[in-house]
Task: structure prediction
Amino acid sequence: MTRDKSILIKNIYYMLSYAFQTLNQSNYEEIAAEKFEDMQNLFAAILAKGIGFQLKQGLYREYRNCQEDLSVMRGKINMQGTIRNKMSRRQLLACEFDELSENNLLNQILKSTVLLLLKHGNVKARYKDDLKKKMLFFSAVDTLELTSVRWSAIRFGRNNQNYRMLISICQLLAEGLLLTTEQGEYRLAAFLDEQRMCRLYEKFILEYYRKHFPQLSVTASQIPWALDDGSGTMLPVMQSDITLQLGSSVLIIDAKYYSHTTQEHYGRHTLHSGNLYQIFTYVKNKDYAFGETPHKVSGLLLYAKTEDQIHPDQTYQMHGNEIGVKTLDLNLPFEGIRKQLDGIVREMLL
Result:
């Protein structure tokens, strides 16, 4: 089946919309209705809208420490600096004070990413013009090397929650655009790499079920080891991607986004053994936690459908538990994706 690139790009937008609820706001409606042929323009449109919305509210500001020679005292006096001024016959006080500033890490990331995007040849002129206008309001903001940003260390609070989605888009763009050609032009892969797509894929499925199945407990919970003596030193954490629970019925979903959904040995296709061992371990340890209470614990490996000829769709009965392996076809209008996700819950949990 030939992939319709515009459908895939549109579904990237829908996945982002679930992962970051900000995109569901009315000011992003125009983007939802537009047809995109590549990711660069999709991200450029989202950033232009998002930054414009943030400018109306005011750019996020943080207190930063400033040191300045002044004719009147502000904040506290730096004695060494003041003495140095006196010795130089400068009648100025060396002052240290805190000042609210737009020149902080979050705004620096936005500006640096936009400037990187403006160098990209595939971005349409109308998006570039829109972004350039937005950058006029960032004149007091410095740029930085995006390779030096520790993305995992960025924290969001009450005053900068609106930046969460924008910074995530910047990370996706920066990590893709930082590759250059010999001519010095920046490029972005046609699609995100497996690792980043897998994170987005997991988050999308989790947030989809949270929104559309409020009767379920939907978490990305840790599963305790079923230990006989209680000693679990050095055991790895069992972190599920998605756990759906209704009373004593549990479905553990492991979301996988790979280029190939199966592995081939001597012409024979089999499931990735590590994935199957992992979901089986999750299910059996969760099953043990219920003890003698009547319950049902099932597991599902949910692969994103690829262009491979083989698409797993099997259910196995393993030592009293149901383990399913399915593929989710993202090369469909979103209603088709919704039907698949709803069907999984009806078949394996409800």
Remarks:
- The chain has three domains: 5-60+103-192, 62-101, 195-348.
- The chain is about 40% helix and 20% strand.
- The first strand starts at residue 62 and ends at 70.
